[in-house]
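Possible race condition, two jobs.
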Amino acid sequence: MKRREFLTRSIQAALAGSSMTATLGHLSLVNAMVPPADDYRALVCVFLFGGNDSYNMVVPSGGLEYEAYADARQSLAVAAEDLVSINPLTTAGTFGFHPSAPELADLFNDNKLAVAANIGALVEPTSRTSFENGNIELPQQLFSHNDQQKYWQSLNTNVAKPTGWAGRMADLLEGSNGETGLSMNVTIAGSNLWQTGSATLPYSIGAGGVQTLKGLNSAASGERERRRADAFNAMLTSSPTSAFGQEFARVQQRSINLADLIADQIADVPPLETQFPDGNPLGGSLSMVARLIAAREALGMKRQTFFVSLGGWDTHSDQLERQPILISRLSQGLHAFSQAMEELGIGNEVTTFTASDFGRTLTSNGDGSDHGWGGHQLIMGGAVNGKEIYGNMPIIEIEGPQDSGRGRIIPTTAIDQMGATLASWFGLGASELNEVFPNLKNFSIQNLGFMR
């Protein structure tokens, strides 16, 4: 028996004895929509921690619209002649990407990327009048980093134990995958709420690979390490009398076997010809996602979500120096990942999207921008109806009809609407969308149309 087959069977045996897995299996049998044998789909969330000033990432580039933008942004405005032109199929007006994002502009003009305009945290449709009158329900603690990060990932934080919308999807669809024990949700950025469900937790892996136990190798050359490993294994197999001890031993053994199995499968993946950018933390994380996706068949995966992140977007100061570096890392990382998916032949099966705490203020604080509300997001992949801007581009005007104060633009499209569009493509039915996206029922448009 091959080592990986032994590990797989060991994991299955451990799972069979776990009360948590019994619950997972029951939920899966009841709820899962098992995809066809040749069907695979993955969602990759790129979370931009700190709040991306996306009104400088996608900019109106012509005529009165650019003049209004430059007037509002003052010292933060990107020069019109420096913008990289994009040509939306139907959206009125002319636009450009930040000069540090030529790769994003190429993806957009090649129909592989779309812009979701002015997305943000909303419980129900909100106007400036209703906001000022206080007669609508709003998410809690607007403009707070921690609270808005959690809201983006959960959409319902006003409960004792919130779950994330990718976690809720996995609760419904976990039965779609095989029995290796690998969670549908994999994070390259540590623990997160987005991938945490009632019966689902994300599997964490580093950009450099699986974290394994050190100093516990039964085949080590040193006698001391062999004895230590033998003692540890004896503890796991000693059949503890307490239920807690038995469950602890099962979890430990399952984790060890799963780590070994994933490490073996990643090692077996042939190197990609696609070169990810050096010195780019996002590129390193997306390179690991690409390797895991390449091992999808060996790991028995039909549905997966991945969570990666890029920090540093809280540009209260030095924005003109810092943001170009961040946008360049985002642009180069996404472009390389798109190429990798094409190389693997699954460009149509993997959809990548950005998320961020919030947008930022149109106004400058003298050296940067402050915490805002709505902002633009990107959706990338072969299944994306690209070369288009979805939703409504905001009116870039201080004290304008969409300014909630201090240049904080009120979103015109909810995170629930964007998420539900992605989830429909991922495999959720209409009835399940309202279960996963608690505010969706409050919006007349529930699918933004950016997925085929």
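Job #2 (started ~2 s after job #1):
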Amino acid sequence: MTVKAYLEITLTIDDSDRPAAAKVYNDYRQPFLEQITGAVSKELLVRDEDVQVLHGFDSAENARAYLDSELFIEDVVVGLQPLLKADPDVKIYSV
């Protein structure tokens, strides 16, 4: 499957909470790839100022649909919510 869209979620998380955020990423990476329609890839990008999760999809429509999925809302958001220092920045890019 070829990546035709990216969902980028930028998170502001304290350094001390980054291991917990990485655990959320690792816990839900495989279910994302196996269960979400159109999912192609998922990468964790760590910078000094923030953490980004870059999700690859086969279409922008499937990227948008993931944001409404049970996996995202009930698992990922719930796991990350206590770690966030600001609202996440969510962007969708077409390739």
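The chain has one domain: 5-94.
Logs attached separately.
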